[in-house]
Fold:
Amino acid sequence: MACISNWLHSSHALLPTLYRRPTLSAILSRLNHSYAVDRVFPSANQSKFPVKVAPLQAVAKRGFSPNEDEVACPADLQFETPLEIVEYPDPRLRAQNKRINTFDDNLKKLVDEMFDVMYKTDGIGLSAPQVGVNVQLMVFNPAGERGEGEEIILVNPRVSKYSKKLTLFDEGCLSFPKIYGYVQRPESIKIDARDASGTRFSLNLSGLPARIFQHEFDHLQGILFFERMTEEVLDGIRAQLQALEKKYEDKTGLPSPEKIENRKGKKIVAGFGK
Ligand SMILES: [Zn+2]
Structure:
């Protein structure tokens, strides 16, 4: 996931910025289980809370075409070290992420490298497309520190259940440096996935770990966290997103593949894919 920022508001709202922040241990002490996402940091927008959150709109799910189950070949799993975090609006954040069916040493090496860059960037979760590898893989550790907490590796994850209860959390994302905004998501979920050896397992998550998972899971569907924000919240970060678009254009010499200004008036992405 990207960033869980404001997990604990005064009302104990989840703040997802998938970044660590100093009070994370206090946050985690409130959780029975601690598995997490990208980063958790305080949000610059915190003072704007509470925001008026519109009901989620029924919007067509994306990424569930017949190609969804396309399997990754060895070339899809190639990577260079050290891994670098891909920032918005890089098109790799929107590319299809293929399923993995080869559980070899290369995959384990990729997992190790992803944890490495996640810890180095103060993340608590990371998805493979965020390091430019378009496959169905995420790693996270809510503690955000090597040797602490529990490292979770999910290959080809699917969600089998979502709670009806929704929570609001101030999220951040490693692919959107220093950008935070409130996002509403189910409070708990049930997941089916494989581990790095290919063994299938199921997992129930709630609270911060569920938040982190859902943020990262969105990455695997090519969905970015600002698409789940209300217009009011999005307005607060619009200029920062445009700055990232300009940064991309200056760096690559290419036009930005997407522009936030073109989203004006679009509905919130709703529905939580399986
Ligand atoms: Zn993210």
About this structure: The pocket of zinc ion is lined by residues 1-2, 18, 38, 173-175, 215, 219 (CB under 6 Å). The radius of gyration is 17 Å.
